[in-house]
């Protein structure tokens, strides 16, 4: 409610001593700009925190059709609901929770108002951290040193900000995980003469984030379904080959593009700053083993063979190493 918020801001300007009456407070606010940089801050425990509550369930199935030996199909659906999730409440939550309250004028302040400490003028006219919160009258925790000069010298700026822990957030997740696995001997396709060529194993995994919604301070937000993930759909396909003492595999990882901010509408992805973008990318890994004897096996792995970039706009590879090689000797005794 913009009118409610403005009325509360006018009261806050008076409570902090910036203006003597509503008219002067309104005139001050007409040219006021809040600054969010340079202020000291702290966080800490909250005595009245409660346990988080989760209501989760899943259902899945596995199919092994008789008419295709060695084929396995499986799928799982996950439903996760978390209530009262413990989270740090910064100014982005504390400000609207405090200044949108309909009880502000009556002195019944939201507990979030205690986390916002405005500077006040001392006898010398210097903007300092007060001993008590000028809005609520509550004493400040020791992390805020009363009388210390505020980093912002302007009126009605924060002198200190607390990030309290609160049972504030909730989230709802719906996702699907599907796998397929199929193994066969090469000789099954090309005859007994190809038996020395060994066997092939094909496997694939797909994880789809169907829904990822969060609820902050009681306001539901339907978000980017890829929230918390690199992509909405993540897939991995592996082809493995085994012939006698020799084995090898090739993996393909595919991640669809998304953005980093969970509040971003997918329709606005193209308008995002490059630093918040996660373009679609593909990664390939290769590995091989050879059994020297019954006890010793040589191994070789090449990760990110093509040196694919998760952030091509910055020429940054998928991890801090990029293409990586490793060699190993495994012993069994």
Summarize the structure.
With 333 residues, the protein is mainly beta. Helix content is 11%, strand content 44%. It contains 4 helices and 18 strands.
Q: What tags apply to this protein structure?
A:
4 helices; 333 residues; twelve-stranded mixed sheet; 18 strands; two-stranded antiparallel sheet; elongated; 44% strand; 11% helix; mainly beta
What would your notes on this structure say?
It is a single chain. This protein is 11% helix and 44% strand. By secondary structure, the chain is mostly beta strands. The radius of gyration is 30 Å and the shape is elongated.
So how many helices? 4
Low-confidence regions: 222-230
* Helical fraction: 10-25%
Biggest sheet layout: 12 strands, mixed
According to DSSP, the number of beta strands is 18
Q: Could you say which structural class the secondary elements and strand pairing correspond to?
A: mainly beta
Distance between the termini: 73 Å
Question: Averaging pLDDT over every residue, what do you get?
Answer: 83
Q: Could you give the order of the helices and strands?
A: HHEEEHEEEEHEEEEEEEEEEE
Approximately what portion of the residues adopt beta-strand conformation?
Answer: 35-45%
Topology, please?
Elements: H1 2-15, H2 22-29, E1 41-44, E2 53-63, E3 71-88, H3 91-99, E4 116-118, E5 120-121, E6 127-128, E7 158-185, H4 187-190, E8 199-216, E9 219-222, E10 233-243, E11 246-255, E12 258-259, E13 277-278, E14 281-291, E15 296-303, E16 309-311, E17 316-317, E18 324-331
Parallel strand pairs: 1-7
Antiparallel strand pairs: 2-3, 3-7, 4-7, 5-6, 7-8, 8-9, 8-10, 10-11, 11-14, 12-13, 14-15, 15-18, 16-17
